[in-house]
Amino acid sequence: MFQKVLIANRGDVALRVIRACRELGVRTVAIHSTADAEAMHVRLADESVCVGPPAAKDSYLNIAAIITAADITGADAIHPGLGFLAENARFAQIVEDHGHTFIGPTPAQIDMLGDKIRAKQAALAANLPIVPGGLEPIPNAEAAAKAARAAGYPVLIKAAAGGGGRGMQRVEHPDALSRAFDIATSEAEAAFGDGSVFVEKAIDRPRHIEVQVLGDGEGYAVHLGERDCTVQRRFQKLIEEAPSPVLTPAERARVGRLAADLAASINYRGAGTVEFLYAGGQFYFIEMNARLQVEHPVTEFVTGVDIVEAQLRIAAGAGLGLRQDDIEFRGHAIEARINAEDPERFTPSPGVINLFHPPGGPGVRVDSHVFQGARVPPYYDSLIAKLIVHGKDRPAALARLARALDEFVIEGVSTNLALHRRIIRSDDFIANRIDVVWLERWLVA
Ligand code: ADP
C-alpha cells in the first residue's frame, strides 16, 4: 500500500478519499486554493499545500503546482477525485512521468473513453448494444444531415468530448439541423476545447441506468450492480438509487454482464461506470466514465464494497481481491444531491452556512464537507452534501429518505432540500412513472 497520497480535489470527494486512506493507514496531502484555506479537506488531511488563487484553472486545474505539491511532500500517489483533472489523460500521464502513481485508469484508457465516439466503437466491438448512430465525427452540416437521416429523427448532436450535459442539442426536424450543428460545435469548442460532434438517435423518454465496474487492468472485471439515475434536470443527475426499481432479475444480470464485458475487453484498470439508456426493454450504451462517480455511495450501501478502498488497492498493485461471485446485493439505497442553489431559478447560492444540522440514525449516510460557519465559495460546483439512505427494500428506503430530508436543516444559503422533499413524495416518483425528462415536465406542471 502507499505511504502517502495527495488528493487533487476539494469538497466531499476529497474527504471521501482522505477517509479511505485513514482507514488503510495511508497519510494524506490536501491541495487547496486560497478560497479553501479553511475547508474541511484541508483540516482533515495530514498535510496541505496551497496551489493557487480561487479560480479552478489557477488552482485545482494547475497541473504544475499540483505535481510540485506531490514532489515536495513526497506523496507516492495522486488520487484525482472526480471532476477537475479526474478524466484528463495528459494529467494522468504527467503524474506517472514524475514518478507518482495515478490512482485511476491508464492515460490511454482515459483518452479513449473521454472520446464518446471511440467509446461507442469499443462498446460495439465488445458486443454491447449502442444508441444508433454516432460512430464517427461529423465534419459539417451536410454530413450531419446524412447521419441524422440514417439514425432517424429526433436526433441528438453531442460533443465527442462532452460531459455534464454540455454541447448537446436535440433536433426534431431536418430544418433545424444546420443551426443545431453550429451551436453544438461552438459550445463543444468553448467548453472542451474540441469542437468534434456526432449525431445519434434520441431515445424516446429513456431511463438512465449505469453499472459500477472494477477492473484489475489485466482483463478481469467485476460489476457491482446498477444505479438508476433517471431523475435529472438538464441532463444532470439529482437522485440516484440502487437497484433500479424497474429491471427484472434477468435484465439486471444482463446489463451487469455487458458492463463487465466492456471493462474486461479494454483491460480497464480501477473503478469506472458504464452508462446506458433503457427504454422499451432495451439497453443502449451511451458512454463510460473513467473515474469515481458522485453517486458511488448507493452502490457501497447495497454491496458493502468500499469503492475508494478498491481504487487504492488496485492502484497499489494489490489486485482486485474480488470475484463476481463474492458480490452480494442487500436492500435498497437512494441518494439525494443537496445543492446550494436558488430553489426557483437553480442558480448557485454561495455564502456562509450559519446553521447546519445533518440527519442521522439507522441507514443514513451524509457525505459533506460543509459545517456551521463554512463558506460556500462561488467558484466551484454547488454540491454541498449527499444524503444517502439504505433500507430493506424501496418503500423502507423511501420512508427513511423522507424522514432524513425532514431532519436536515441548512440555513444561510438556499438549497434544493424542499425540492427533494416534494419529488420523493410525488406519485410519479413513488410509482416509477418517470424518465430522464420527467422532472422538467413535472416542474412546470
Ligand atoms: P454527459 O457526458 O454530458 O453527461 P451523456 O452522454 O452521459 O452526457 O448523457 C447524459 C444524459 O443525456 C443521459 O443520462 C440522458 O438523460 C441524456 N441522453 C444522452 N444521450 C441520449 C440519447 N441518445 N437519447 C436520449 N437522451 C439522451
Instruction: Calculate Rg over CA atoms.
Output: 21 Å
Q: Largest sheet, if any?
A: 8 strands, antiparallel
Shape: globular
- Order of the strands making up the biggest sheet: 13-12-9-10-11-14-19-17
First-last Cα distance? 53 Å
**Computed structural class:** alpha+beta
Number of helical segments with 4 or more residues: 15
Per DSSP E runs of 2 or more residues, the count of β-strands stands at: 20
Uncertain runs are: none
Q: Identify the bound ligands.
A: adenosine-5'-diphosphate
Helicity level? 25-40%
Beta-sheet strand percentage?
Answer: 25-35%
What is the mean predicted local confidence, pLDDT?
97
Sum up the structure in keywords:
alpha+beta, binds adenosine-5'-diphosphate, 445 residues, single chain
In words, what does this structure look like?
This protein is α+β, with helices and mostly antiparallel strands. It contains 15 helices and 20 strands. It has helices spanning 11-24, 40-44, 63-73, 89-97, 107-113, 116-125, 141-151, 177-192, 249-265, 296-303, 307-315, 394-407, 417-424, 427-431, 438-444, and strands at 4-7, 27-33, 47-52, 77-79, 101-102, 155-159, 169-171, 197-201, 207-216, 221-233, 236-242, 269-279, 282-289, 332-339, 351-352, 355-357, 364-368, 375-376, 383-391, 409-411. It has an 8-stranded antiparallel β-sheet with strand order 13-12-9-10-11-14-19-17, with helices on both faces. A 5-stranded parallel β-sheet has the order 3-2-1-4-5. α2 (40-44) links the parallel β2 and β3 (47-52). α4 (89-97) runs antiparallel to α5 and α7 crosses α8 (177-192). The termini are far apart. The mean pLDDT is 97. Bound molecules: adenosine-5'-diphosphate. Adenosine-5'-diphosphate binds next to β8, β12 and β13.
